[in-house]
Write a structure and sequence with these properties.
It is a single chain. The chain has helices spanning about 1-50, 55-80, 90-125, 125-155, 160-165, 170-190, 195-250, 255-270, 280-300, 310-335, 340-360, 375-405, 430-440, 450. With about 450 residues, the chain is mainly alpha-helical. The chain folds into 3 domains: about 15-125, no CATH class; about 125-220 and about 410-450, no CATH class; about 220-405, no CATH class. The longest helix is centred in the middle third of the chain and has 53 residues, at about 195-250. It contains 14 helices and no strands. It is globular and about 80 Å long.
């Protein structure tokens, strides 16, 4: 009898281990498929320019189908991480479906990109592309001093935690541009040597580096604008919160409502005084979470029909806040794609899906809507707050991934990185190589790096 129960326990442990491996496989497959889709979109742009729109119709249709099915995979992954408990069988079924969808996506893209590979290789105008890349890199280099000045100016106004999203962007952009220029030279030499495939890979790495450098520099300017918007939105949300408190104090004082009121009052009282460096994004997140908690408590305490209709301006504030939070999260993830895991990507994809649903619900783009019927305001506000909450989670998870992946010593391209025993010497060492190991995490060049740096 003891042997029977021992075997049953071993079987359960083995099944749990298999489920854990499947969950890990699903997350890895989701990241790889998402990256593959983004890289294929870039390849499609190249093919359109070189072969014409008609020649790439098959790849375009395949990419649209893959994007739709990966949306399903992201939604399944979101269900695995929502607040509703799941059974082991439910998790197993979803993870298996995620893996299946990602493998299908990879196969479909392989089939269509392979069909165009030879034509693209013949038609690609490498010298023109390299010249354009170098011109773009030179233009972006002129923006780096301005970006550094912007960071210094923002440092006198905002807290260091708020600036952590963009503080290192100028340095990272400068390193990416250095890598892009070096890779362009490699592409030219490999093409002259007749090594077309490696030359094309080096050229793709070069153009991707320039694109990412531009994204990082754009994010600095976007941060300044979004921070000012956040401060403006914060004042409106503070007013909304006080009005919400006034309404909540008239509600039946259940334990849930009383706790939510205290939480929101604490969030309001914790706002720093004028003149203190602030983190408006964190303050908005705290107020938004407290507001959401108060809404949920009130909903549980009274009948829906008795709830007041949200004023139109409150709905507009919620939509503006959602768009701002989503824009910040999207820029951070786009600028550090190689470091971002499945969780942050899933939250961002879910936030984007809910945001699209909000536009469909209202019948027009939510950012431009001027009138919302009383019957629709509450749901519109709930959807907007859901977008903001998911985007905030995506930003927090992305920052966690960036912090865990960022090297301790950022290094520079100079010194051991470029001369001596560095890139020119045939082997990599020192801080420069450590930094580039992280920066190049999002570049799809894989094991050819050792061959590129010759």
């Amino acid at each position: 009898m003891a042997g029977f129960w021992g075997k049953k326990k071993r079987d359960e442990q083995e099944l749990q281990a298999q489920d854990a491996d499947l969950a890990k496989q699903a997350g890895t497959a989701l990241v790889a498929a998402d990256e593959r889709m983004r890289v294929t979109a870039d390849e499609l742009a190249f093919a359109d320019a070189e072969l014409g729109h008609d020649a790439t119709a098959g790849l375009r249709q395949a990419l649209a189908a893959v994007r739709e099915h990966l949306g399903e995979a992201f939604r399944l992954n979101q269900l695995n991480h929502d607040e509703i408990p799941d059974t082991a069988e439910e998790l197993r079924t979803r993870n298996a479906r995620i893996v299946q969808l990602c493998e299908w996506a990879d196969d479909v893209l392989d089939e269509h990109t392979s069909a165009l590979a030879e034509k693209i290789a013949r038609a690609r105008r490498a010298p023109e592309i390299i010249a354009g890349m170098r011109a773009d890199a030179a233009r972006l280099r002129t923006r780096i001093p301005h970006a550094r000045d912007t960071i210094e100016r923002l440092d006198t106004r905002y807290a260091r935690d708020a600036l952590a999203q963009v503080a290192s962007n100028p340095a990272q952009a400068e390193q990416l541009l250095g890598f892009a220029e070096h890779s362009a030279g490699v592409a030219e030499r490999r093409r002259e040597a007749g090594q077309r495939e490696q030359a094309n890979l080096a050229l793709e790495a070069s153009t991707e580096s320039v694109r990412r450098a531009a994204t990082l520099l754009d994010a600095v300017e976007t941060f300044e604008v979004e921070a000012l918007r956040a401060e403006s939105t914060l004042a409106a949300i503070v007013e909304d919160s006080r009005e919400d408190l006034a309404v909540a104090l008239k509600e039946p004082h259940t334990a849930g409502v009383a706790t939510a009121i205290t939480t929101l009052q604490t969030a309001l009282s914790s706002l720093p005084p004028v003149g203190v460096n602030t983190d408006p994004f964190a303050q908005l997140s705290r107020l938004r979470e407290a507001n959401t908690g108060l809404d949920a408590a009130i909903a549980a305490a009274r009948e829906r029909a008795a709830r007041p209709i949200p004023p139109l301006e409150h709905v507009h504030h919620a939509i503006d806040d959602a768009d701002r939070q989503f824009a910040v999260a999207r820029d951070v993830i786009a600028g550090h794609r190689g470091w971002i895991g499945a969780d942050a990507r899933t939250r961002l994809a879910e936030a984007e899906r809910v945001r699209v649903d909000l536009d469909r619900f209202l019948g027009v783009p939510a950012a431009t809507v001027t009138a919302i019927g009383e019957d629709h305001r509450e749901q519109a506000m709930a959807m907007a707050r859901r977008v903001a909450y998911l985007a905030s989670e995506a930003l927090q998870l992305a920052q966690r991934d960036i912090d865990s992946s960022r090297p301790q010593d950022s290094g520079q391209w100079g010194g051991d990185g470029w001369g001596g025993d560095g890139w020119g010497g045939g082997r990599r060492r020192g801080g420069g190589s450590d930094m580039m190991g992280g920066i190049l995490g999002g570049l799809v060049i894989g094991s050819i790096l050792d061959g590129i740096f010759d």
